[in-house]
Design brief:
heterodimer; A: alpha+beta; six-stranded antiparallel beta sheet; 3 helices; 14 strands; 20% helix; B: alpha+beta; Immunoglobulin-like; 2 domains
Amino acid sequence: MKRAKFIMLAVIAALVLMGAGYAAWTQVFTINSTVSTGELFVQVKNTGNTYEVLDSDDNVTESGVLNTTNDYLNLAVNTTAIDEGTSRETLTQITYNLAKMYPGTRVISEITFENFGTLKAVTSYNNLVINPSSGNALWTDLEIKVNGSPIANGSNSSEKLENLALAISTAVGNLEPGTLKTVTIIQELPITSGNSTEDLSLTWTLPLTFSQYNLE
Amino acid sequence: MNVRSKKLLIISVTCLIIVGLSYSIALGQELKDNYTNNVFLIELIPEECKVLDMSEGVSASVEFIRDEFGNIVDKTFIHLLAENIYAGASVTYAIALRNISSLALSVDHYTISIDGGSNSLEDLIRFSGSVKIYRSESEYDVLGSFSNIRIDELAQNLTNIMKYRKIDITEKIVIELEQFFENSSVRFKQDEGFSYKLVPVFIQYFP
């Protein structure tokens, strides 16, 4: 019996020693990884709206800052902004209400797009709205330029608006972080416009979407 | 139990004790020598640990613990940094290690711990990569590779590739690790982050 106990103890001692020897020969190694996401934030501002009145020779006879409460030239630019009053304030869509225009008037708007994020952003649009949706002579006659380039009328109201949206998003293009782009939109009812545009109004809305560049 | 069986048992046990004792004594001696010569079994090769590739706009680097003079003080720790990550982005790192001990080594297992906070980034990260063992500067074997695995599968995949594989003295291991993110902008949140700690446990190689 004593011998059996001795054997048992010897086996346990041997196993303990083997375990200790094994444990002495391990080494841990640390690979630490930190991942953080970037930010996508493009601030859009309507920095100015002015009007001009032209004569038949295309000379500017009157100009000034657009006053949306002025009955004389009731061209309004309504914008939808989020986070108003903060450094994160930005427009999400631009809406133009064009009323009481007459031949020889134009409104000039400047929209700035500044990428405050850490990612390259691309501009796109969706859900364009024009009201009335069809058959508006004012929309047909309206000459629109984006950064000096005229917008084609297209075959219908929607197509012209689509062309306008495309021109704006192309003008903004890819926005690298820290860059600022300014888009100038000129809407003019030419002096040659006839009576068909009398007493008409229209509204168009361009919602803006900014995406990270690799999800174009 | 007859006398002959008992004798046989005693002899066997005695042999076992001797084996155990000699093994531990030998290990103890090796341990002493090893601590005299070099403290670690395996350590990083800093000049070969680098960012191999990264997506546009991503800021990635590898960092080490350094003293005030810029010297690396711990070659068993590497920090992989990836900032400005976005949906669809990826970063590929190379992590090079060398067996600097006087023993052949192998990997017992990997563990991983994730400090993700309350965000879902860890669900969006995926890994691909390979493990190579360099017998010399130009000769290497690819021990294995993995593709498009989740973070909770990473440790097990690396363990499966490296376990039982002998890493001889002076041999070099290179782990190429690509971490990429699902192209799911809907699930991606801005200004978030998480970290994970991947820990391989090296042991003496047992044939």
